[in-house]
Specification:
Order of helices and strands: HEEH
Strand content: 5-15%
Low-confidence stretches: none
Shape: elongated
Distance between the termini: 49 Å
Radius of gyration: 20 Å
Helix content: 55-70%
Largest sheet: 2 strands, antiparallel
Amino acid sequence: MSPSVMSRHLKVLRDSDLVEESSPAFDARVRIYSLRAGATAELRSWLEAIERGWAEQLTALKAHVERGV
């Protein structure tokens, strides 16, 4: 992945508050990215809801197919 592409990805993650950026005092050129726990919990909750929806749809499809209709 090129540096410019990496930079764009990191910007999206920062803008969405999924990561936070810091720089060590000894070198301002270095950037350290950390996942924000609260933001990932929100993402996990959303993904679980999507997964439940798909599971319900697949269960309904399986029942429909098994009925032979």
